[in-house]
Amino acid sequence: REFPAFAVEILSDMNHADVLTGRADLAMLPYRPPADGLVIWKLGKSFNVLLASPRYLHEHGEPKTPADMIHHDVILRSGDYYPKSSFLMRGEETVPFGFRHAAFSGDVMSGKEALLKGEGIAVSLSIATCRKELESGEVVPVLQGWHRPDWEMTLVMSRNNLGNQRLVRFAQAFVKSESE
Predict the structure, then answer these.
(1) What are 102's strand-pairing partners?
(2) What mean pLDDT do residues 67-84 have?
(3) 120, burial (CB in 10 Å: exposed 0-12, middle 13-18, buried 19+)
(4) Which of 42, 38, 40 lies closest to 159 in space, CA to CA?
(5) CA distances to 43, 87, 100, 103, 151 from 179, in Å
(6) Under a CB-based contact definition with an 8 Å cutoff, are residues 70 and 102 in contact?
(7) 39 pairs with which residues across the strands?
(8) CA gap 100, 123 in Å, rounded
(9) Which residue has the higher pLDDT, 129 or 19?
(10) Overall pTM surpassing 0.70 (yes/no)
(11) Residue range 29-52, pLDDT digits in tens
(12) Which residues, including other chains, have CB under 8 Å from residue 64's CB and lie 6 or more apart?
């Protein structure tokens, strides 16, 4: 509403290198990149839980402990800079993270699609990404309380774009909206 003539194209799987090379003007990232050449805004933490479709659980059973994940296929987000984790945590407790097979490893939108199709248990999709599907029951939490480490979310822009006031104002409005 604040920027009526401002066109936005949303792409999945962009990173800070894409911003530095000009492939993207802004990128929302699940990590804090090196600051060289970038303006970085903190967006806060993003939380994730293990999720599955009721269909997957009906066909494969539900893991009761993190060790049971070794018998399940998983859906992972991945990328050149994506935060990786080899453990699950609950409070101060951590356990190694193992699984049978990666049913899917890649971008967030394709990972969500694989989750909805019942291809495995998602271990790295944020709650925000799957909020509607959680509310509707299309996906359900698995191993309540266990999760991968939280992500430090950032919005980044090339320092070369500081002169583009519309882009800077849009970024500031986005950061404000996300923080609320």
Answers:
(1) 74
(2) 88
(3) buried
(4) 38
(5) 6, 28, 37, 33, 15
(6) no
(7) 157
(8) 13
(9) 19
(10) yes
(11) 989 999 899 999 999 888 888 999
(12) 143
Q: How far apart are CA 49 and CA 100, in angstroms?
A: 19
Beta strands in 91-158 (DSSP E): 93-96, 101-106, 121-122, 140-142, 151-158
Give strand pairing partners of 42. Answer: 154
* pLDDT one-digit tens code per residue, 112-165: 999 999 999 999 888 888 999 999 999 999 999 999 988 899 999 999 999 999
Q: What whole-number distance in Å separates Cα of residue 100 and Cα of residue 9?
A: 36
Q: Which amino acid is at 23?
A: R
CA pair distance 148, 97, nearest whole angstrom: 9
Q: Is 1 a residue whose pLDDT tops 80?
A: no
Looking at this protein, which amino acid is placed at residue 132?
K
Cβ-based neighbour number of residue 63 at 10 Å? 20
Length of the chain measured in residues:
180
Tokens 């359900």 sit at which residue?
140
Placement of tokens 């990232």 in the chain? 29
Please check whether residue 102 is in contact with residue 72, taking contact to mean a CB–CB distance below 8 angstroms. Answer: no
